Amino acid sequence: MKKILTTTAFLLISIFALLSQTPPPPPDNPSDGGNGPVGGGAPIGCGMVLLIALAAGYGGKKLFDFNKKILKNCSL
Asked: Which CA distances in Å does 59 have to 45, 50, 52, 63?
């Protein structure tokens, strides 16, 4: 039952991700291939910055916790 619920939730959420891009504009002149940018204008720049920032924050927290654990176990 839990597996079915998880699969259903995944499929419902993935619908929004699959429909997130707009279709490319129609070409003005069919001989030159259109006027849209390469890749259809998919915005990936802000997502990359967010992903890198989250990874740096996660790595910093892991490093902080590791140092805290080392100092706790160290007896002077």
From this structure: 21, 14, 10, 6
Q: What are 15-67's pLDDT values in tens digits?
A: 776 766 676 666 665 555 556 566 556 666 777 888 899 999 999 999 999 99
> Tokens 């069919």 identify what position?
30
The domain locations on the chain are: 46-76
Q: Which of 27, 28, 22, 26 is nearest to 40 (CA)?
A: 22
What is the rounded end-to-end Cα distance, in angstroms, of the chain? 55
Within 10 angstroms of residue 36's Cβ, the number of other Cβ atoms is: 14
Give the predicted TM-score (pTM) of the model.
0.42
Rounded distance between C-alpha atoms, residue 9 and residue 65, angstroms: 34
